[in-house]
Amino acid sequence: MTKSREKEMAKVPTGLSLVPKELLPQVEAARRTQLFSGMDALEVARMLPCLGARTVSFEEGEYVLRVGERDAHVWVVESGEVHVIREDWLGNRNIQGSFGPGESFGEAYACSPDAKLPVSVVVVRDVRLLRLDVRRMLRTCSSACPFHLRLLSNLVGQMASKNLMLGSKLRYLSQRSTRDKLLAFLSDESARQGSPSFAIPYTRQQLADYLSVNRSALSSEISRLRDEGVLQSERNQFTLL
Fold first, then answer.
1. Which residues, in sequence order, are bridge partners of residue 123?
2. Residue 123 contacts by C-beta under 8 Å, 6 or more apart in sequence?
3. Band of the pLDDT at 89, cuts 50, 70, 90?
4. pLDDT category, 140, cuts 50, 70, 90?
5. Cα(230)–Cα(119) distance, rounded to whole angstroms?
6. Coil/strand/helix, residue 125
7. In the prediction, which pLDDT does 60 show?
8. Could you read off the pLDDT of 199-222 as tens digits, one per residue?
9. Within 10 Å of residue 208's Cβ, how many Cβ atoms?
10. Suppose 134 and one of 110, 166, 178, 182 were both cysteines; which one would form an S-S bond, judging by CB atoms 3.0 to 4.6 Å apart?
11. How far is CA 80 from CA 64, 102, 123, 156, in A?
12. What 3 state SS string does 134-180 have?
C-alpha cells in the first residue's frame, strides 16, 4: 500500500464501511480467522497488502496443494470448502482436516518452507482462497505496521490450536473399535459446538476417511447406536441422547 493511501485511510474512523470496496471480501474473510483476532477492519486492510494478499479460486475436485510440493503461504477460506488429505499409492484417502469460510490452513508447513508437504489439499466445494505470504508475516514490513506483533502472536496461537486438533485426531485413531472412534469424535464435536445436536463437516464417506474406518462398518455402527438410543442422525446432523 502506498504511503498516501495509508495516510488517507488513517484520517477516517475505523470501520468496515470505510474499507476500500475492492478489499472488502478479503478483509471480511481475514477478520473471521484467529489469525487477525483483535484487529479492526481498517487495521486488517492496511496489513493485507503488506502480506502480499491475493485471492485465488479453485473448482470442486481441483488440488490447491499436492504432496511433495513446497509452500510458503497461509491460506484463508473466503468461501467454499477444502479437505487436507493423505493418499496412498492405491488411492486410499485419509482426511486430516476440513476447512470452510473464516478458517485458515497451511501455517505449520509455511513456517517450514524447505520441507516437502506430506499432505495434499483438495477442493470439495468451489472455493475462493486468500493467499498470504508467511515470510512477510515473520519479518517486520518496511512500513513497520503497529499490528505486526499482534499478527505474530495470533499466528503462534493458531498453530497451537491446530496441534491440539491433531492431538484429538490421534486419540480417535488410537481407539480400538469403529464404535469407540465414532463416539470419541462425536463427543468432542458436541462439546466443541456446545450442544448435543450439531452438524459435522463430512459426508458418510468423508467421515469414514477421517476416522480411517470402512464406510459400511461405520454406517452399521451408526445404525446400531440409533437402535440402542445412544444417538439420532440424519445425513451429517447428529444428536447425542
1. 82
2. 58, 59, 60, 61, 62, 63, 64, 80, 81, 82
3. confident
4. low
5. 35
6. strand
7. 95
8. 998 899 999 999 989 999 999 999
9. 22
10. 110
11. 13, 10, 8, 25
12. HHHHHCCCCCCCCCHHHHHHHHHHHHHHHHHHHHHHHHHHHCCCHHH
217 three-state secondary structure: helix
Q: Report the alpha-carbon distance of residue 115 to residue 225 in Å, rounded.
A: 43
Q: In 3D, which of 146, 157, 158 has the Cα closest to residue 44?
A: 146
The number of beta carbons lying within 10 Å of the beta carbon of residue 76 is 27
What Rg value do the Cα atoms of the chain yield, rounded? 20
pLDDT score recorded for residue 15: 60
Of 165, 166, 156, give the one whose Cα is nearest residue 74: 156
Under 8 Å between Cβ of 154 and 38: yes
Single-letter code of the amino acid located at 161: S
CA–CA separation, 187 and 174 (whole Å): 15
Average pLDDT over the chain, rounded to an integer: 85
Among all chains, which residue has been given the C-alpha cell 503462534? 156
> Which residues, in sequence order, are CB contacts of 92 under 8 Å at separation 6+?
none
**Torsion sign, CA atoms 105, 107, 112, 113:** positive
Query: According to the model, what pLDDT value does residue 79 have?
Result: 92
Closest alpha carbon to 217 in 193, 172, 170, 182: 182
Taking Cα atoms as reference points, which of 168, 35, 29, 157 lies closest to residue 96? 168
Separation CA 223–CA 237 (nearest Å):
14
pLDDT exceeds cutoff 90 at 227:
yes
Give the position of cell 491475493.
54
